[in-house]
Amino acid sequence: MSFPAFRSRRLRRTEALRRLSQEVDLSARHLIAPLFVKEGIREPVPIPSLPGQVQHTVPSVVAEVGELVELGVGAVILFGIPARKDPLGSGAWDEDGIVQQALRALRREFEDRVVLVADLCLCEYTDHGHCGVLAEGPETVDNDRTLELYGRVAVSQARAGADVIAPSGVMDGQVAAIRHALDQAGFPHVAILSYAAKFASAFYGPFRDAAESAPRFGHRRSYQLPPAGFRAALRRVEEDIAQGADAVMVKPALLYLDVLREVRQRFSVPVAAYCVSGEYAMVHAAAQRGWLDLQAAMSEVLLSIRRAGADWILTYFAKDAARTWRA
User: Fold this and answer.
1) Cα separation values, 254 from 200, 268, 285, Å
2) Bridge partners for 198 per DSSP
3) Of the listed 38, 85, 198, 319, which one is catalytic?
4) Pairwise pLDDT comparison (221 vs 301), residue with the higher score
5) Is 251 part of the annotated catalytic residue set?
6) Helix %, strand %, coil % of the chain (to 5)
7) N or C terminus: which one in the chain shows less Cβ crowding within 10 Å?
């Protein structure tokens, strides 16, 4: 039997050859670690639905970021859980709010050694759990009244030391409103990473446990994108870039790799993808039952997101992945 001259296995024979031939680069520098900071606790609180993750105190989040920086992870995104909530979510723009405290502490400790991203939404701060001011009509949230509050939150976060503001509430016009507020307040250098293609997914459950942000009534489908909304997602990305977004995000990641790929091909700004809490939790659940190898599955998940076109990956795997790759 005659074989062709080309044998692809030649370049897969050893680990060194496989590394040399790898088509997609994936390292700790591509990862952004999501971290939860809670007001009023004295020590970190484990999150049962997110194995290995905790609600941090300010001192413990500083220590955690120190470990991440040493492992080569270059960015973190902060989510806050306040001690008190109200209908407007006023804790989100409190100058002494929990995220603001954490941002100042991290900026003092690390200066410019790590990129500090502040998630901007009101769901963790409102007593009803929705992402903005409640409306009186058929819509759950009053879009335009909410935009003014988003501007206040962005300025407060920038003042506390955020390098990047990441609005996740999916209000129409949110990027333009935040860009205007930042510029007017003297923060034109602060970037915006927009959750532009954020879908109304069933895979956010563990996050809502961690952030204590589940809506007390109704749903978020009137402002988050429908899962079948492929063209709607692309239009939203285009709109957010036109409004001034410096980078855009697709969320969730694994279930929307087709959207991620199309966004990467169509637009020139950096593209992030959020490997969300449900995607992380289901890998851990299967591994706990012995159905798959956790480390191998983690690497394959992250590689698939990077291969689809993500420049940055927000993932709860960040620390474990960086530690594994360093070893």
Assistant:
1) 14, 21, 16
2) 251
3) 198
4) 301
5) yes
6) 45, 20, 40
7) N
Element housing 197 (H / E): strand 191-198
CATH number, domain of 164, equals 3.20.20.70
Q: Is the pLDDT of residue 138 over 60?
A: no
Contact 197, 256 (CB under 8 A): yes
Domains contained in the chain, number: 1
Tell me which residue of 290, 289, 287, 308 sits closest to 317, measured CA to CA.
287
Question: Is position 15 within any domain?
Answer: no
Q: Which residues contact 206 (CB under 8 A, 6 or more apart)?
A: 47, 49, 50, 277, 278, 280, 281
Report the distance separating Cα 106 and Cα 119, nearest Å.
15
In tens, the pLDDT along 59-91 reads 999 999 999 999 999 999 999 999 999 999 999
- Quote the domain boundaries for residue 45: 26-326
Residue from 38, 85, 251, 319 carrying the catalytic annotation: 251
Instruction: Please give the Cα distance from 113 to 231 (Å, whole number).
Output: 38
d(CA 170, CA 201): 13
Confidence (pTM)? 0.94
pLDDT at 31 over 70: yes
H/E element, 31? strand 31-38
Mean pLDDT over residues 126-145, rounded?
Answer: 87
Q: Evaluate whether residue 59 is within a structural domain.
A: yes
* pLDDT recorded at residue 154: 98
Residue 226 lies in a domain: yes
